[in-house]
Design brief:
By secondary structure, this protein is of the alpha+beta class. It has helices at 2-14, 99-132; strands spanning 22-26, 29-33, 41-46, 49-52, 59-63, 68-77, 80-89.
């Protein structure tokens, strides 16, 4: 049970969004948002050399190269620097999954699984309870067995005592 709770906490923590600054994926690009100041300078670091980008907005749209948005982006706004390290696969029809949605999907899956287990248990109980309450045998114990010519009883007076007497 503790592993399950730990797994839910990890999933919830993994999908929580950053409130002050953040990254939003839309289509084949990532939109980086800096602090609340109106202007910001954006830099992209490649091979340990910062390259100044032309945009001076609070947001920067990083385009994908080969379906992957990657790199170290830095936002300088006043005296604060915010670093964004990205390495994400993006696609045109991708959608983000919020923490509430992920928790809801996991919880509904657990409820559905518990429902199936309960139905199987109830059906199994009905089948086992019927086997214990069978109808009594209709034939009385003293009634003679029906005759069967293939399996007639041996008459001790006519039985031969030879070893291979029955194989002729």
């Amino acid at each position: 049970m503790s592993r399950f709770i730990f797994m839910i906490l990890l999933i919830t923590a993994a999908v929580i969004e950053v409130q002050c600054q953040g990254v939003e994926f839309k289509g084949k690009s990532a939109i980086l948002t800096c602090s609340n100041e109106p202007e910001a300078e954006w830099y992209r670091t490649t091979d340990d050399k910062p390259e100044k980008l032309q945009e001076k907005n609070i947001t920067y749209e990083a385009s994908a190269e080969g379906g992957i948005v990657s790199g170290l982006y830095t936002c300088k706004s006043g005296s604060t620097k915010i670093h964004f390290y990205l390495k994400a696969k993006v696609c045109e029809n991708c959608h983000e999954l919020s923490g509430l949605m992920a928790t809801g999907v996991i919880f509904s899956d657990l409820l559905l699984t518990a429902g199936v287990i309960l139905i199987v248990y109830v059906c199994a109980q009905k089948n086992t309870s019927n086997t214990n309450q069978r109808a009594p045998n209709q034939r009385s114990r003293d009634a003679p067995q029906p005759p069967n010519p293939d399996y007639a009883r041996l008459n001790p007076k006519t039985v031969s005592k030879d070893v291979y007497a029955g194989f002729s």
